[in-house]
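quick one before i forget lol
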Amino acid sequence: MSRASRQEDIEEAYGIQANAAVAGAARGTAVGVGLAVIAHHLWPAFRRQTISFKAFLITGFTCTGLVFSAERALREHENIRRREENALRREARLDLARRGLVGTETEIANWKAARREALERQSQAE
Protein backbone atom coordinates (compact mmCIF):
# COMPACT_ATOMS: atom_id res chain seq x y z
CA MET A 1 0.00 0.00 0.00
CA SER A 2 1.48 3.31 -1.02
CA ARG A 3 1.85 6.30 1.24
CA ALA A 4 -0.78 8.24 -0.75
CA SER A 5 -3.37 5.47 -0.49
CA ARG A 6 -2.67 5.12 3.23
CA GLN A 7 -3.23 8.84 3.66
CA GLU A 8 -6.51 8.56 1.72
CA ASP A 9 -7.60 5.69 3.97
CA ILE A 10 -6.75 7.72 7.06
CA GLU A 11 -8.70 10.73 5.78
CA GLU A 12 -11.68 8.53 4.87
CA ALA A 13 -11.67 6.95 8.35
CA TYR A 14 -11.37 10.39 9.94
CA GLY A 15 -14.34 11.68 7.93
CA ILE A 16 -16.46 8.68 8.89
CA GLN A 17 -15.51 9.05 12.53
CA ALA A 18 -16.11 12.82 12.58
CA ASN A 19 -19.57 12.51 11.00
CA ALA A 20 -20.55 9.77 13.44
CA ALA A 21 -19.23 11.84 16.35
CA VAL A 22 -21.38 14.83 15.40
CA ALA A 23 -24.48 12.65 15.03
CA GLY A 24 -23.74 10.87 18.32
CA ALA A 25 -23.20 14.15 20.13
CA ALA A 26 -26.54 15.43 18.85
CA ARG A 27 -28.30 12.26 19.99
CA GLY A 28 -26.56 12.38 23.37
CA THR A 29 -27.51 16.03 23.82
CA ALA A 30 -31.13 15.29 22.94
CA VAL A 31 -31.25 12.43 25.44
CA GLY A 32 -29.57 14.55 28.13
CA VAL A 33 -31.91 17.50 27.62
CA GLY A 34 -34.94 15.21 27.56
CA LEU A 35 -33.93 13.49 30.78
CA ALA A 36 -33.12 16.83 32.42
CA VAL A 37 -36.56 18.20 31.52
CA ILE A 38 -38.29 15.07 32.81
CA ALA A 39 -36.21 15.06 36.01
CA HIS A 40 -36.87 18.78 36.51
CA HIS A 41 -40.62 18.22 36.39
CA LEU A 42 -40.77 14.96 38.35
CA TRP A 43 -38.02 15.17 40.96
CA PRO A 44 -37.92 18.09 43.43
CA ALA A 45 -34.29 17.42 44.39
CA PHE A 46 -33.23 17.84 40.75
CA ARG A 47 -35.34 20.98 40.44
CA ARG A 48 -33.28 22.58 43.23
CA GLN A 49 -30.00 21.98 41.39
CA THR A 50 -28.27 24.88 39.69
CA ILE A 51 -28.36 25.47 35.95
CA SER A 52 -24.60 24.87 35.86
CA PHE A 53 -24.96 21.39 37.34
CA LYS A 54 -27.78 20.52 34.95
CA ALA A 55 -25.67 21.74 32.02
CA PHE A 56 -22.78 19.64 33.32
CA LEU A 57 -24.97 16.53 33.29
CA ILE A 58 -26.16 17.28 29.75
CA THR A 59 -22.53 17.78 28.69
CA GLY A 60 -21.76 14.33 30.08
CA PHE A 61 -24.48 12.82 27.91
CA THR A 62 -23.16 14.76 24.90
CA CYS A 63 -19.58 13.57 25.38
CA THR A 64 -20.70 9.99 25.95
CA GLY A 65 -22.76 10.00 22.76
CA LEU A 66 -19.90 11.57 20.82
CA VAL A 67 -17.27 9.07 21.98
CA PHE A 68 -19.37 5.92 21.68
CA SER A 69 -20.73 6.82 18.24
CA ALA A 70 -17.33 7.77 16.85
CA GLU A 71 -15.72 4.62 18.21
CA ARG A 72 -18.50 2.37 16.89
CA ALA A 73 -18.31 3.93 13.42
CA LEU A 74 -14.53 3.58 13.28
CA ARG A 75 -14.69 -0.06 14.40
CA GLU A 76 -17.30 -0.82 11.75
CA HIS A 77 -15.15 0.89 9.09
CA GLU A 78 -12.05 -1.02 10.19
CA ASN A 79 -14.01 -4.29 10.21
CA ILE A 80 -15.19 -3.70 6.64
CA ARG A 81 -11.66 -2.80 5.52
CA ARG A 82 -10.26 -5.90 7.24
CA ARG A 83 -12.79 -8.14 5.49
CA GLU A 84 -11.96 -6.57 2.12
CA GLU A 85 -8.23 -7.01 2.74
CA ASN A 86 -8.68 -10.63 3.86
CA ALA A 87 -10.75 -11.43 0.78
CA LEU A 88 -8.11 -9.85 -1.47
CA ARG A 89 -5.30 -11.73 0.29
CA ARG A 90 -7.24 -14.99 0.00
CA GLU A 91 -7.70 -14.39 -3.72
CA ALA A 92 -3.99 -13.61 -4.06
CA ARG A 93 -2.94 -16.77 -2.21
CA LEU A 94 -5.23 -18.91 -4.37
CA ASP A 95 -3.98 -17.33 -7.59
CA LEU A 96 -0.36 -17.69 -6.52
CA ALA A 97 -0.95 -21.32 -5.52
CA ARG A 98 -2.41 -22.03 -8.97
CA ARG A 99 0.84 -20.72 -10.45
CA GLY A 100 2.87 -22.89 -8.07
CA LEU A 101 4.11 -20.04 -5.88
CA VAL A 102 4.00 -19.73 -2.12
CA GLY A 103 1.87 -16.79 -0.95
CA THR A 104 4.51 -14.87 1.00
CA GLU A 105 4.03 -11.23 1.94
CA THR A 106 6.31 -10.15 -0.89
CA GLU A 107 4.50 -12.29 -3.46
CA ILE A 108 1.11 -11.04 -2.27
CA ALA A 109 2.31 -7.41 -2.49
CA ASN A 110 3.63 -8.03 -6.02
CA TRP A 111 0.33 -9.72 -6.96
CA LYS A 112 -1.64 -6.74 -5.63
CA ALA A 113 0.53 -4.29 -7.56
CA ALA A 114 0.14 -6.30 -10.78
CA ARG A 115 -3.61 -6.55 -10.25
CA ARG A 116 -3.89 -2.81 -9.60
CA GLU A 117 -1.95 -2.04 -12.78
CA ALA A 118 -4.13 -4.44 -14.80
CA LEU A 119 -7.29 -2.81 -13.45
CA GLU A 120 -5.94 0.65 -14.28
CA ARG A 121 -5.06 -0.40 -17.83
CA GLN A 122 -8.49 -1.96 -18.23
CA SER A 123 -10.26 1.18 -16.99
CA GLN A 124 -8.17 3.39 -19.31
CA ALA A 125 -9.00 1.16 -22.29
CA GLU A 126 -12.72 1.61 -21.69
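fyi Helices lie at 3-42, 44-47, 51-98, 105-125.
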